[in-house]
Amino acid sequence: MIRELFSATVIIGIISSGIRLATPYLYASIGEMFGQRSGVLNLGVEGQMLLGAFMAFYVALKTGNLWLGVLAAMGVGALMGLAMAFVTVNLQATQGISGIGFYLFGLGMSNLLFQKLIGTVETVQGFPRISLPLLGKIPVIGDIFFNQNMLVYLAFLLVPAAWFVLHKTTLGLKIRAVGENPEAADSLGVSVSRVRYFTVILGGVLSGVAGASLSIALLNVFQQNMTAGQGFIAVALVYFGGWRPWGILGGALLFSLVNALQLWIQVLGVPIPSELAVMMPYVLTILVLTVSVSKVRGPSALTKVFEREG
Amino acid sequence: MTPSGSPSAEKVKIHTLEMIGISKRFPGVLANDRVDFDVRAGEVHALLGENGAGKSTLMKILYGMYHPDAGQIVIDGQPTVIPSPVAAIRKGIGMIHQHFMLVPTLTVAENVALGLPSSRGPLTDLEQVSKRILQLADKYNLKIDPKALVWQLSVGQQQRVEIIKALYRGAALLLLDEPTAVLTPQEVDELFVIMRQMTLDGYGLVFISHKLHEVVEISQRVTVLRNGRKIGTRPTSEVTKQILANWMVGRDIEFITSSAQQAAGETRIALEKVCCDSDRGTEGLCDVSLEVHSGEILGLAGVSGNGQRELAETIVGLRHIRSGKVFLDGKDVTGLQPGVLTGRGLSYIPEERMKDGMIRNFNIAENLILREHHKPPFSEHGFLKMRDIAAHTDRLIKQYQIKTPSQKTLAKSLSGGNIQKVLLARELSRSPRAIVAAQPTRGLDIGASEYVHEQLLKQRADGTAILLISEDLDEILALSDRIAVIYEGKIMDILYRETATREEIGLLMAGVHLENKPAETAIAPEL
Ligand SMILES: Nc1ncnc2c1ncn2[C@@H]1O[C@H](COP(=O)(O)OP(=O)(O)O)[C@@H](O)[C@H]1O
Ligand SMILES: [Mg+2]
After folding, report:
1. Confidence band for B130, pLDDT divided at 50, 70 and 90
2. Cα separation, B357 vs B237, whole angstroms
3. What is the pLDDT of residues B101-123, one digit of tens each?
């Protein structure tokens, strides 16, 4: 059985599903990264993902249109982000605590809506796999990378896009400045609150898509608490990736590959207790976090309230 | 965005700017009380006053950061309201803050471009910004690399970035808030060269300082503030340092200097080839060796952030050292806990009084016994002896002239000078064998500073060994018997006060050894 694990098909399977499993993390972590780079720690990602997952699923189920589902997930994510921005920027609440509040809200609300609006286990026909022309035909590589669904492709395009926005646009410059020294940015006429509203809402939108990628692309069902901690892992991946898009990509891939490996171990019936197997990605995250985080410094103004004096 | 934000816009001209009857109240203080102030194109107008006199407040009002409770700002005859820094910039006012407003993780060009519209729309145009920065830098002989990350620059270079930032935004009037506080004497000279050039080009400059000799050297007019009130404005050529000092403090002040050195006693503090890390994980101290003797004040001069904090913390046991040894009274105390060192007669006046020296929410009595609360006479069998503590506190409040409503007043509600007196009372009343005093007068007014100096000199007379760490060269020169200069974690040299010159110390502070260089190149600005 161990030998089976090293056969070509299984290895291709592991990498291919690893890439698919990385999708929700990429959306959620890149979104969270924008918030944190501007100084806002949003621990409510999990709740935003849950509501996004539900809305996407519900709208897709009722209309049969998957893209409308994604749009609905983005909408509900944006609303959650707006609320988070209001609470942290205007009301100056402690970010960690209010984030947990939003998580609990999303958890309860998605569950309630599910009970009231759907009630039973239903499935949708999720985003189909699309084999990209030419690329999809490349042996092995094509199977692994270019035979995925649309949300997977978009998630991976998001990484260079995020890098570009951060480093090549005036908006990105403002975001980085606000997260490091909001007083300096403010003294140059950059509106700290506007930037933070933008990043936190963007984070909500992307968390919503992360949820949608679970409920209408990866699993194609909605269950209560179906994210099972992925939103929190997404926050951890931001630290793991050193607040950089490429670092986040690396972290998300590493984590998802270990997760995929662990799933295949269970599928193949390799004699490792499944409880231990399930723990693998989490143990790995903790290990890598303890080793890596001490070296990279996060945004200086992270979690700090900005208030103009006088 | 308005065109004035762009660098190519025509320079705004300000011929005269007047502030009339400006008042500003903060909870508990009247920071500005009906102050009149004006500045003209082509002059340096110095704003002189003690710490807390209201200088920064007045300038922050002009820069739109604070809103005055009363008064008016008039630019070239036009009454003007300045609601925000952006509005100030638009009107041609730039400010170099006491604490730089730079984003350390961004490059010079990014810092300059921040908040400005870009010629490439949503994309940054850093190439163009860099070009323009180099033009400006060239004009004023400021060497600066637009691609350098700000945190890697020296303090002096960061200040130049601030100046360029203001010029880039088309400032016609520049407010410089204590620009010399963080510079070496040579860097001050270089700054003055730049400032003179700027006045020739028609800029108006406000120069804030509490150092008389600088004001006399650079300004054409001087205004003195005291306790939020304006004492007067005069052409600088018509006043003397004595008059200015008197205006500043409200009485005549003596310039304290220590008496000649006594015969140095036995070694009390010794460091042997100490190396340690800084907070950033880089090299903090490198092979530092020095000795402080009984009855001596060893001054440690240096530009902020060159290892002073690490050195102090190493001696008092707050920092782990990588190699080397620390001795107290001839005994190896390397790696011992601060509490043990306290017991052996080491006192510490930390740089961050409120953070490292006291507990904000403890009252005076509690703060006074922090170090020895577990010992008689303050406690017995684990119980605090309130009556003895109260008597002790009473005695110290009188002896050290601490102004406070009661013993039970919380530390956080005391003024800076009184906080330092509480700290001195605790640290000095134990008859220490050695003292590490870090920036003991920073942020204090002249009266409180004088008091601290007197106390340190008294300790010296009693035979205590004192390491005085200060970024204020005047303070070092006034009190020290010997002067050690620290640069990038290394002791550059140790000089005797009588023979040391300001210039020599300044060069050492910048990492330059006089003997190693021909005189001309050593003195030429390294800009
Ligand atoms: N933002 C603020 N809030 C409350 N008090 C302030 C504030 N800024 C300054 N002050 C007080 O106003 C007085 C003048 O301060 P400041 O203008 O900074 O003096 P200076 O620059 O001359 O040293 C001080 O007593 C200071 O404590
Ligand atoms: Mg000031």
Report:
1. very high
2. 43
3. 999 999 999 999 999 999 999 99
List the structure tokens of B488: 């990038």
Is the Cβ–Cβ distance between B430 and B265 less than 8 Å?
Answer: no
How do residues B447-469 score in pLDDT, each as one tens digit? 888 889 999 999 999 999 999 99
- At A187-244, the pLDDT tens digits run 898 999 999 999 999 999 999 999 999 999 999 999 999 999 999 999 999 988 999 9
CA distance B364 to B415: 13
Domains by residue range for chain A, with CATH: 2-295 (1.10.3470)
Give the pTM: 0.82
Q: Where are the alpha helices (DSSP H) in A169-273?
A: 170-180, 182-187, 192-213, 230-240, 245-268
Other Cβ atoms within 10 Å of A229 Cβ, number: 11
Predicted local confidence at residue A1, as pLDDT: 56
CA nearest neighbour of A88 among A249, A209, A203, A247: A203
Q: Is A165 on the interface with B (CB under 8 A)?
A: no
Asked if B286 contacts B454 with a C-beta cutoff of 8 angstroms, the reply is no
Q: What is the ipTM of this complex?
A: 0.89
Q: Name every chain A residue with its beta carbon within 8 A of the beta carbon of B83.
A: none
Domain ranges in chain B?
A: 16-249, 254-345+432-527, 357-429
**Residue A15: how many CA atoms within 13 Å on its side-chain side?**
14
pLDDT recorded at residue A69: 97
Contact status, residue B327 vs residue B272, Cβ threshold 8 Å: yes
Beta pairing class for B346-349 and B434-438: parallel
CATH topology of domain B16-249: Rossmann fold (3.40.50)
Q: Which residues of chain A have pLDDT under 70?
A: 1-2, 5, 292-295, 309-310
Q: Mean pLDDT throughout B359-383?
A: 89
Q: In this model, does residue B330 exceed pLDDT 70? A: yes
Distances in Å between the alpha carbon of A97 and those of A94, A263, A272?
6, 33, 38
Asked if the domains at B16-249 and B254-345+432-527 fall in one CATH topology, the answer is yes
Q: How far is B440 from B452, CA to CA, in rounded Å? A: 7
Mutate to test the pocket of ligand 1, among B37, B48, B56 (most ligand atoms within 8 A of CB): B56
Nearest CA in chain B to A164: B123
Question: Considering the domain B254-345+432-527, what is its CATH architecture?
Answer: 3-Layer(aba) Sandwich (3.40)
Pocket of ligand 1 (CB under 6 A): A 309-310; B 26, 29, 31, 49, 51-57
Cα distance between residue A218 and residue B435, in whole Å: 67
| B110 DSSP assignment | H
Give B57 Cα–ligand 1 centroid separation in angstroms: 6
pLDDT at B507 over 60: yes
- Closest residue by Cα to residue A29 from A240, A272, A174, A176: A240
Which of these, A243, A256, A38, lies nearest to A155 by C-alpha position?
A256
**H or E element in which residue A276 lies:** helix A274-292
